[in-house]
Amino acid sequence: MRKRLYKRLLDAKLETKLCAVFLVIFLMSMTCILVLSSILIRAESIKNSSQKTEQILKEAKRNLDYIILDMENMSRFIISESTAQTMLLEGKGTAAYEANSNQMREILANLASYKPYIESIGLYNLDGDGISIGFGPALTRDYRMLENQGWLQEVFEAKGMYCWEWAKFEDLSLEKNFERLILTRVVNRQMSQKPAGILTLTLNQSYLENMLSQIYLGNQTALTLTTPDKEIIFSTEEERTGVVSEVFAHKNDNTFIIREGLTESLLHYEIADDAGWILYSKTPMKEINRDFLINLQVIIFAAVLTIALAFYFYKRFAKTITKPISDVMHAMRRMECANFKEQIPVDREDEIGTLVKSFNSMTSQELICKGWFLPPNTYDCGSFVVNGTAVVGKE
């Protein structure tokens, strides 16, 4: 019976420790499952946002391509006022002039469908006055030719516009982030010849804000503009809002460097098949990797917190189970030293409680005779107890 009680007490302690271990494993598993689920959900969200971004950028690029195509078509019919007056006065070229006018009316009708996207359009002849058409206020500008280099330098005097020098791209700036975006192209530009004309397109600020508000701006989206000669003009990103001082394009590896004072950013771009403006979106892998590292830190923190909490609860509540068991075993040890007056504390209704209650109800002689502490062949069951001390007669 003694061995049975000892074995049951040890089993109870082991069961308590195993329960604590399984509790830690369960809590850690649940934490890892929750965090990993959040990682997968986050990655799927980024993927969906990236696909949505790509769709929005493609749509915006298509609209811009249509607008610029119509503007290029219109540039073929630019006639300076002096030339037009000469043609009409001399009675020559009236049919051609009317045909050109009809063509321009048709193209303007096409451009009218893009009214939500653009603020104003300017068509200019370098040998005559500029013709401001389209929507919005006319843009005031001063043109100067760099005859010795054969390049066109354009200085915008209106507020919020930027100074731009062809093929050199210095002092490129925007007054505010996406406040005004000016697209300028030189028509029929050749290094040895004077450009025939200039097309200027100002995108509507509200259209830009609406387009960009639908894009997931997690440092993964950029709006990049290139010239027909595959030169980078500028690239706008959420993280870069200052004045861009220099732009260096590297055509071989499709990278370019943006310098803002002492800050330098290295970005990647893709060149469109056509010689037009391109819209560009970076891969979202950087964002996914950053989220994974953040979630990994969360997993480590949650694991440490789980272990700490499990240890605390084990120390706090497991003692309510292990302490009575320890008390029973300690009382039994004292009784083995012939302290038969010891009563083992018990408050259990299971097998251990039944054994302990039976143990407490036994007399000293019964404890000795039933072999609780000494082997039956080492004492005489007829011995008696004097003052709580067992007197054993050996054979």
TrEMBL record:
One CC-aspect GO term = plasma membrane
Please state what class of enzyme this protein is: transferase
> Where in the cell is the protein located?
Cell membrane
What does the record give as EC number?
2.7.13.3
Keywords, ordered alphabetically = Cell membrane, Kinase, Membrane, Phosphoprotein, Transferase, Transmembrane, Transmembrane helix
Asked if the keyword rRNA-binding belongs to this entry, the reply reads: no
Quote the InterPro entries the UniProt record gives.
Answer: dCache_1 (IPR033479), HAMP_dom (IPR003660), HssS/ArlS-like (IPR050398)
> Entry's Pfam families?
dCache_1 (PF02743), HAMP (PF00672)
Its predominant location is: membrane
PROSITE patterns per UniProt: HAMP (PS50885)
The UniProt record lists the keyword Transmembrane helix:
yes
> Which reaction is this enzyme known to catalyze?
ATP + protein L-histidine = ADP + protein N-phospho-L-histidine
Give start-end of the signal peptide.
none
Membrane topology according to the record: Multi-pass membrane protein
Q: Name one GO molecular function term.
A: phosphorelay sensor kinase activity
Ranges for domain HAMP: 319-365
What protein does this entry describe?
histidine kinase
